Amino acid sequence: MTEFEAASLLAQWVGSGAAVAAVGVAVVFGILTLSNSRRSIDAQERATAALDTDPHLAEMLSRGSQGDPVWAVEKRPTKDLWWLRNVSDHRVWNVRITGATTQDTERLRFDWSSDSEPMTADPNAPIPFRTLNFWGAAAVPTIIVEWADEPDGQPRAERIAVAEGP
After folding, report:
1. Which 8-state DSSP code applies to residue 109?
2. pLDDT, tens digit, for every residue of 95-112?
3. 86 and 70 share one domain
4. How many CB atoms lie within 10 A of CB 17?
5. Phi and psi at residue 72, to the nearest 5°
6. Four-point Cα dihedral 61, 65, 66, 72, nearest 10
7. Cα dist. 132→29, 110, 114, 118 in Å?
8. Which domain holds residue 74?
């Protein structure tokens, strides 16, 4: 192999390495952009939800804030397990749990189908749920709990942040 051929071969290898490095940088920036986009969409949904533009939800949230607290969220020893506990002194009916945003809903997992028959919750009864953490997710998911104080009573709702505790 002549010096000219060796130099050409080296130039080809350097060019190929630079192309691979450029693709790697593009992939990293693509992943960062996707993550930022997910957070941005989640932030926009949270800002919209804060306005309570849905009159039905706004009415249920206002009824939910009346009286004594009904719900508390407790972290369990398992990494992603939480309990939503009925802390009132009475049974509640038609309990449904959803995420405040699309991303929050994607992160929630239940051992029961939240779309099936509505649940009842006795005093101090826990409702277990899990939160999935994925790259690009908002740090603190928010849930909306809907319930009624009577079997056919007016629905109430409460918005609760599922915050990491000590």
Report:
1. E
2. 888 888 777 888 888 766
3. yes
4. 10
5. -140, 145
6. 120
7. 24, 11, 16, 23
8. 54-161
